[in-house]
Amino acid sequence: MSVSQKLIDELMAILATTPDVKSSLQQICEAYRGGAVFSTSFSEEDQVILHFLSKITMPPAIFTLDTGRLFPETYSTWSRTLEKYPLTIQSYHPDHAALQEFIEAKGPNSFYESVENRKACCHIRKVEPLKRALKGKSLWITGIRAEHSPDRQDMTPVEWDPANQIIKYHPLLYWDHARVKACINENDIPYNPMHDKGFVSIGCAPCTRAIQPGEDFRAGRWWWESNKSKECGLHVHQTIEKTDQTV
Ligand code: SF4
């Protein structure tokens, strides 16, 4: 048995004995102490997880990736979150020199011109800062849900991320959207008001649009590209070797 599989089995054993998400987060964060980290994009799922983390005795490090191109509403949600919860959210930003070189060579909106440019922008603004944020950590807590896409149906709450060499834990994997919304309403959790305007998966402003009823969860992201190229390198699902993004 590989080391990663042994760690996954240990975490699944913890999950089997805990009655709810808050207890699971408590026990898993205690088991990993300084090694656990939670990434938030202030999505509905991330806000629910952050709410539970505010209730446990040993919360993990929490970080967000500030790409510099987020919606004003996302920054407002970030501010309201800090007002409500006594937690520190670390902010990771693109490397200034790399971003300056890219913008001067390609222009500020080159992601519309080619998949190559879009991926380069995502790499500078998201992937490289993510690597910095995960450095030295051993457990990454995410807001991924199976309902988000068919590709996530076969995922398990704990999995190995080969790209980042880290164990990932998805505490809300089996929650449906109604349950997420109910938790937000019951606990008066701040959420991004754009969710009420048809924005489901919210990323950078130039690369996100609202979706129509019946459209895929991810249809509003990089809508000008084919589905095949819609990846940016943040989340790599081991089994299907497909990359997607929620941060
Ligand atoms: Fe750049 Fe768009 Fe990717 Fe944001 S989502 S990093 S603006 S290409």
Give your account of this protein's structure.
The protein is an alpha/beta fold. Helix content is 37%, strand content 12%. The chain contains seven helices and eight strands, in the order ααβαβαβααβββαββ. It has helices at 3-17, 21-32, 44-53, 72-84, 96-106, 115-134, 177-187, and strands at residues 36-39, 61-65, 90-92, 139-141, 158-161, 166-169, 235-237, 242-244. Strands 3-2-1-4-6-5 form a six-stranded mixed beta sheet. α3 links the parallel β1 (36-39) and β2 (61-65). α3 (44-53) crosses α7 (177-187) and α5 (96-106) runs antiparallel to α6 (115-134). It is globular, with a radius of gyration of 18 Å. It starts with a helix and ends with a strand. The model is unreliable at 238-247 (pLDDT under 50).
**Order of helices and strands, N to C?**
HHEHEHEHHEEEHEE
Task: Quickly count the helices.
Answer: 7
Quote the beta fraction.
5-15%
- Over all CA atoms, what is the radius of gyration? 18 Å
Distance between the termini: 31 Å
Low-confidence stretches: 238-247
The major sheet is characterized as:
6 strands, mixed
Bound molecules: iron/sulfur cluster
Shape: globular
Number of strands: 8
The overall pLDDT, averaged over residues, is 90
Give the % helix: 25-40%
What strand order characterises the main sheet? Answer: 3-2-1-4-6-5
The class by helix and strand makeup works out as: alpha/beta
Key terms:
globular; disordered C terminus; single chain; alpha/beta; binds iron/sulfur cluster
Structure described in brief:
The protein has 247 residues and is of the alpha/beta class.
